[in-house]
Amino acid sequence: MDFDPRILVVTGDEAEGEALCRQLDSEGWTTISATSHEAGAIVLEDFPIEAAILVAGEADADVAPVAARLKGLASPRYLPVIALMGRAPTPEESTTVDLAMTAPAHPVQLRIRLEQLVRAALAEEELNLRIDTFRQQGQAIDLPLSDLTPVRVLAAGKPDRRFLALSNALAEDGAEVVAAPTPYTAFDYLHESPFDAAVLWGAEDHAPALSIASGMKRNTRLYHIPVMLYLNDGAQMDASDLFGRGFADVAAADTDERETARRLMAMARFHRRQTGVRRALESVRGSGLTDPDTGLFTRDLFAQHLGRVSEASRERRRPLSLCVLKVTMTEPVEEARRDGWLARALPQIGTMVSRLIRTEDTAARLSSEVFALALPGTTEAQARIAAQRIVAVIGCTAFEAGPGRSPFVVDFELGVAEQQAGEAPARTLERASSTLATDTRVAS
């Protein structure tokens, strides 16, 4: 079986590294460890590592130079670096690594943060590619500007001296803290204005905090806001369950409030940066170069951009998969097509496709009833699952068929192909299209 590690763990303590690797392996991240940065450099030459974790104990030297060297060796692929710290990070470490976390980190929390960082790396790479594609067409995409306004943090929960101490520490770090004593006021504030992070006070009764976190994760606009649970002294809760509920971090009340504030501010700044990247990527939907009905890439624009994405995937040693989605001409769909109702539904279908993909993916309308997806950093198996999920959601939607007629639903024929070594992107797209007739259809 081929060994395909995704995460590099660099630590001078071999036993500690092996334990961390076992934890990450159990969370689905195949790992490889190195006991020195020299060994880590060799690993980067041999494998297309997706992220690196540097473990730094209390007496260990500054890891910033190591992080910078590993990032440089991985170029042009962006390599996210997490520092697991047994001490407070230095200013240089804080600016060089992508995320500094207090050791030991819970494996579920580490998995979630790795997923976020790897996706963020893909989004940053895709943004640069789209900037080049649109610049070639004479249209600029604005880079996300650095937001210099104070980081906004929602602090929800009953007043408590430890919670107030945390709020003061956040304010000292330059944050604007908005206090919400109840879940009702918390959601009022969340819907009225944007926030970069939220911290919820566990107190004796955790129900209000869990209710707020659950409500935020069910809301598409609030879903990405990082949420920290600040536990009361002596509180006993299952950390795996908390991270599974969507908490980005869990802090005990006996932790120094300055340390807790630092962790929260790091999450808030990361969220603010990624929000800017997502907005820049989504800004192309309103351009005159995209399909006017759906906002998706046109056939010609997709072909031009796909060449750039394909070349970048090869240079960065990342997988690239293409999907083709073709409307299945069932009898109800044929009837809706003849009467013009399918044409009315297709813009909505195209919009649904664009909303169901990741920010770093590219969706195109190749013809009236055929759509294509380019999924960077995605294997064929992963792409098939993603595409099946998209068409399943669309298949649950009923579209209007005219007065006195039952609404119709749309099924898709689905084709998927992963780019092979030395293969032109047009050929990959042809292979995806050639499987349309034989690929499993996703029923509505």
How is this structure best described in words?
With 444 residues, this protein is α/β, with parallel strands linked by helices. It contains 15 helices and 14 strands. It has helices at residues 14-26, 37-46, 64-74, 91-96, 107-136, 161-172, 183-192, 207-217, 239-244, 257-282, 299-316, 331-338, 341-356, 380-395, 425-434, and strands at 7-10, 31-34, 51-56, 81-85, 99-102, 152-156, 176-180, 197-201, 227-231, 249-252, 320-327, 362-367, 370-376, 412-418. The chain has a five-stranded parallel β-sheet, sandwiched between helices. Strands 7-6-8-9-10 form a five-stranded parallel β-sheet, sandwiched between helices. A four-stranded antiparallel β-sheet has the order 12-13-11-14, with helices on both faces. The longest helix is centred in the first third of the chain and has 30 residues, at 107-136.
In short:
By secondary structure, the protein is α/β, with parallel strands linked by helices.
Topology:
Layout: E1 7-10, H1 14-26, E2 31-34, H2 37-46, E3 51-56, H3 64-74, E4 81-85, H4 91-96, E5 99-102, H5 107-136, E6 152-156, H6 161-172, E7 176-180, H7 183-192, E8 197-201, H8 207-217, E9 227-231, H9 239-244, E10 249-252, H10 257-282, H11 299-316, E11 320-327, H12 331-338, H13 341-356, E12 362-367, E13 370-376, H14 380-395, E14 412-418, H15 425-434
Parallel strand pairs: 1-2, 1-3, 3-4, 4-5, 6-7, 6-8, 8-9, 9-10
Antiparallel strand pairs: 11-13, 11-14, 12-13
